[in-house]
Structure formats: structure tokens, C-alpha cells
């Protein structure tokens, strides 16, 4: 009685390994750039959040009907701790007490309130990748060149 062997030949195994290597060489570059894409998405998300905060603050300001006020009270805020806004427009100021309070949470970002016309929100760990807020116009710009 002869014993029949079963299994793959060495050539078959080498062919499979070569095919897997080719597939890996094609697939890896497509996944390698995800961290940059993720940072860009995070910055764009913060820009949308800033625009929403401006819109909500202005809407609340106009709804109160007091165009000389320099403070808007959003949910959970009390007088003296509200969002500081420009009288007549309701645009949040470019400060921690302005747009910072309108956002209420900036976790994952480093906020720089040094210049009121260029408040920047940079994702933690990024360098030249941020959402910038102009406190005098309410305009939000995005910089993604360093992501």
C-alpha cells in the first residue's frame, strides 16, 4: 500500500507569496496618507463649528432685540458669563470670553487668542494646520498646508 501525500508544492506557495506582496505594494500607499486626511477633516470640522457658533450667537443676539448689548446669553450661561459680542452685529469677539465661550469646548485643539482678528484653533500635535477666526468680521478661514 502506498501512502499518498497531500498539500501544496513549493512553487504554489511561492506564487501565493508573490501575489500577496504585489497586492500589499499596491494597497499600502493608499492607506499611508490617512493621518493627513484625518487632520484636514478635523480642521474643517472646527471651521464648521466656529461658523455655527457665530450663527447661533448672532441669532440669539437678534432674537433678544437689544442691539446695544455687548453680551449674549446662550444655554447655561448667566449674566456676566455670557458670550461677549460686538454691539449692533452680535458677532462674537475674538477672545476667550467671546468665541471661546460660544464654542464652550475646544478639547483636542490649542486655541491662540493673542490677536482678536486672527484667533487660531490648531489640532493638538499639528503645526501649520488650523482654523482661524476673525473677531471683527466673524469670518472663518482654514489652513491645511501643514497638516
Describe the strand arrangement of the main beta sheet, using strand numbers.
3-4-5-6
Count of helices?
3
Structural class: alpha+beta
Low-confidence stretches: none
User: Which strand-content bin applies to the residues?
Assistant: 5-15%
Order of helices and strands: HHEEHEEEE
- Average pLDDT confidence is 89
Number of strands: 6
Shape from CA axes? rod-shaped
Topology readout:
Layout: H1 10-31, H2 34-64, E1 71-72, E2 83-84, H3 99-103, E3 109-112, E4 119-123, E5 130-133, E6 140-143
Antiparallel strand pairs: 1-2, 3-4, 4-5, 5-6
What features would you describe in this structure?
Helix content is 39%, strand content 14%. With 147 residues, the protein is α+β, with helices and mostly antiparallel strands. The protein has a four-stranded antiparallel β-sheet, covered by helices on one side. Strand 3 and strand 4 (119-123) form a beta hairpin. The chain is rod-shaped, with a radius of gyration of 27 Å. The model has no long low-confidence stretch (mean pLDDT 89).
Amino acid at each position: 500500500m502506498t501512502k499518498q501525500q497531500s498539500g501544496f508544492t513549493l512553487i504554489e506557495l511561492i506564487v501565493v507569496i508573490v501575489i500577496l506582496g504585489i497586492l500589499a505594494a499596491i494597497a499600502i500607499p493608499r492607506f499611508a496618507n490617512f493621518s493627513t486626511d484625518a487632520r484636514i477633516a478635523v480642521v474643517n470640522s472646527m471651521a464648521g463649528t466656529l461658523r455655527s457658533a457665530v450663527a447661533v450667537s448672532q441669532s440669539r443676539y437678534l432674537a433678544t432685540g437689544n442691539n446695544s448689548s455687548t453680551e449674549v446669553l446662550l444655554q447655561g450661561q448667566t449674566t456676566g458669563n455670557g458670550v461677549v459680542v460686538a454691539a449692533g452685529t452680535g458677532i462674537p469677539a475674538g477672545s476667550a470670553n467671546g468665541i471661546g465661550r460660544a464654542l464652550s469646548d475646544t478639547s483636542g485643539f490649542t486655541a491662540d487668542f493673542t490677536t482678536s482678528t486672527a484667533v487660531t484653533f490648531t489640532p493638538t500635535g499639528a503645526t501649520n494646520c488650523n482654523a482661524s477666526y476673525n473677531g471683527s468680521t466673524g469670518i472663518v478661514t482654514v489652513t491645511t498646508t501643514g497638516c
